[in-house]
Amino acid sequence: MAELLKPETVQVLLDEVPKWELGDNSIGRTFEFDGFQPAIEFVNRLAKEAEEMNHHPDIDIRWNKVRLVLSTHSAGGLTDLDFMLATKIDKLA
After folding, report:
1. Which stretches of 1-93 are assigned E, i.e. beta strand?
2. Which terminus of the chain has a smaller tally of CB atoms within 10 A, N or C?
3. E strand or H helix at 11, and its extent?
């Protein structure tokens, strides 16, 4: 099982994914697209990455906006997996 990150480590890793916001035991980001179809295509691309890592974000789709929240539920908070996936997702956007 992945280990929870210390608060000071979370702050350092947030600098590597500056568009992500720190929440309660999670990080989140909203992506905006030109319409529904591009938003769904983005979700399909990120689903492949998430499945390969066996680490899945919470996803909220609202027409042209996709809100993602990352947390390692089995560990009860943020782990390296969350920041690794955030970095991969940023590259897909």
Report:
1. 21-23, 26-32, 58-62, 65-70
2. N
3. helix 7-14
Q: Is the dihedral of CA 28, 65, 36, 58 positive or negative?
A: positive
What is the SS3 assignment for 66? Answer: strand
Question: Which residues is 61 bridged to in the sheet?
Answer: 66
Domains and CATH numbers, the chain: 21-75 (3.30.1360.20)
Nearest-angstrom CA–CA distance, 24 and 11: 14
- Give per-residue pLDDT as tens, 16-74: 999 999 999 999 999 999 999 999 999 999 999 999 999 999 999 999 999 999 999 99
Q: Which of 54, 52, 51, 42 is nearest to 89 (CA)?
A: 42
53 phi-psi bin (left φ>0, alpha ψ -120 to 50, beta other): alpha
Rounded to whole angstroms, the Cα distance separating 74 from 87 reads 20
